[in-house]
Amino acid sequence: MIKKEMIAMLLAGGQGSRLGVLTSKVAKPAVSFGGKYKIIDFPLSNCINSGVDTVGVLTQYQPLRLNSHIGIGIPWDLDRNVGGVTVLPPYEKSGNSEWYTGTANAIYQNIEYMESYNPEYVLILSGDHIYKMDYEVMLDFHKANNAEVTIAVMPVPMEEAKRFGIVIADEDKKIQDFEEKPEQPRSNLASMGIYIFNWKTLKESLYELANQSSLDFGKHVIPYCHSQGKPLYAYEFNGYWKDVGTLDSYWEANMELIDIVPEFNLYEEYWKIYTTSDSLPPQYFSSDSAVERCIVGEGSEICGEIYNSVIGCDVKIGKGSVVRDSIIMNGVVIGENCELNKTIIAEQVQIGDEVKAGIGEAADNETAPHIYNYDLVTIGEKSVIPAQVTIGKNVCIFGCTTLEDYEERNLPSGKTLIKAGDKQ
Predict the structure, then answer these.
(1) Number of helices and strands (H, E) in the chain?
(2) N or C: fewer beta carbons within 10 Å in the chain?
(3) How far is residue 132's CA from residue 130's CA, in Å, rounded to a whole number?
(4) β-bridge pairing 295-296 and 377-379
(5) Neighbour count for residue 398 (Cβ, 10 Å)
(6) Cα–Cα distance for residue pair 174/191, rounded to 1 Å
């Protein structure tokens, strides 16, 4: 029988609704990040860099692009005869069929997959965080403490602690208590949603709690293990870690990549981030172009000016256009003499000549102010923006728009423009 010391289960089924139109046609882990990567590349690269060569990726929402991106795992050296990467969507079973309901339910539905590797330990990961972490060091900590469950935690400012699952631990990092998003936090150690379980402990808890309607690690499995007196430990992580689940945190994390001394460095030799790469020609910069503090992907043609921006692959920016503080994803075409400020443009968007975005006084978004804020303009994939229109701040656009959609060629701050047939 195959025996693996530790296998990883990577939860990548999330819709990511707080990313608005960026995730209307694609799962959050498959959203572009840092020019050429996808968000899921970071946990996958962490796995292979940490010596974890067996990864189950649990997909559900809009899985097509995620599945084709992962393929058989070649870029991460996860194309193995034994182990490697396996995509695990929900599937038809003879008794009953159900979607994954909750993080732990998704793991429960794949007990057979895990059983086939007979692991000592199971590493549970989330597919939507940006960080570099050596899981082997966490496993050593888990073993040294004879823990049955180890939760990766990181210190957060006390005033932000109520947004997280909070761990209360003693000086030996043994967990005394666990609170999910407490109003009055007793500690600032936030759970990162990264767990190492002894396989026996995980299996027993999942079977015991299988009837819960929406089985979740933070709400059910961890409290259950704690109530059974299992030794739970907190592994403190002090590196860079970012949940890019909102548009402002996604924009910020991209902008941090181009800081003079980036907090998160994509260029470290010893800890590479792997991804699937198309065979594209090199970037081209015309004599009229100007570039300052930008990441620019392969195959892009820059004839305008770009400042403090993250530009994906195969992007075309026309002559006289100025792009500032923006994220432009793969395959976008921007016409001539445009002015784009704090604009997030998803893949394959076409922008006509003389378009201005991120202009004027800010106003709250009319449909989803909790999503479209921070003075950002967000344009969903394959959208079309006609020439000579002006777009305000906190605006969301999705679909093939025409001049008739813009009153007097203007879309004021706070507006949402989603064409029929395209859903948010």
Answers:
(1) 8, 33
(2) N
(3) 7
(4) unpaired
(5) 25
(6) 14
3-state secondary structure of 353: coil
Q: What are phi and psi of 344, to 5 degrees?
A: -105, 115
Quote the CA–CA distance of 399 and 401 in Å, as a whole number: 6
User: How distant, in Å, are the alpha carbons of 203, 238, 286, 289, 347 from that of 283?
Assistant: 50, 36, 10, 12, 18
